[in-house]
């Protein structure tokens, strides 16, 4: 839970009268984590089977360096999918932090409303 010191939009949100639903942010966070998991699965499981050997391409392919080029390309893709997964996780964490912030704001607003209500009675 946020202590209220973090504002994900800075001062841009002040007076803008938009509504944020923390539960929608949490649902989006879950979707982003699911996307990250698919990217990780692709990079680790699916691409791990994509290895070329000299026997796969024959003598001319081996001499032309097809095996090395192909395997290097696959390794590059695996590296990029790993980095992409990290970025997706960071994004999900940021959304979760934003949801915490807005939940804290909602709680504070409710406390202030109740205090005003009690003062009127």
What does the model show?
- By secondary structure, the chain is mainly alpha-helical.
- It has three helices and no strands.
- It has helices at residues 22-46, 54-63, 66-120.
- The longest helix has 55 residues, at 66-120.
- The radius of gyration is 25 Å and the shape is rod-shaped.
- The model has no long low-confidence stretch (mean pLDDT 86).
SSE layout and pairing:
Elements: H1 22-46, H2 54-63, H3 66-120
Helix pairs in contact: 1-3
Point out poorly predicted stretches.
none
State the secondary-structure class. Answer: mainly alpha
Write down the oligomeric state.
Answer: single chain
Largest sheet: none
Tell me the helix content: over 70%
Mean pLDDT across residues: 86
Calculate the terminal CA-CA distance, rounded to whole Å.
32 Å
How many helical elements? 3
Shape: rod-shaped
How many strand elements?
A: 0
What is the beta-strand fraction? under 5%
Order of helices and strands: HHH
Radius of gyration (CA) equals: 25 Å
List keywords for this structure.
74% helix, 121 residues, mainly alpha, single chain, 0% strand, 3 helices
């Amino acid at each position: 839970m946020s202590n209220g010191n973090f504002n994900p939009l800075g001062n841009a949100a002040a007076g803008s009268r938009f509504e944020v639903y923390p539960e929608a942010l949490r649902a989006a966070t879950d979707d982003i984590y699911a996307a990250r998991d698919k990217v990780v699965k692709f990079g680790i499981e699916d691409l791990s089977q994509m290895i070329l050997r000299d026997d796969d391409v024959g003598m001319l392919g081996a001499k032309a360096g097809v095996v090395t080029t192909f395997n290097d390309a696959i390794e590059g893709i695996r590296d990029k999918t790993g980095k992409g997964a990290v970025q997706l996780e960071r994004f999900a964490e940021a959304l979760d932090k934003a949801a915490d912030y807005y939940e804290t704001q909602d709680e504070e607003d409710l406390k202030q409303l109740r205090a005003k209500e009690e003062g009127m009675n």
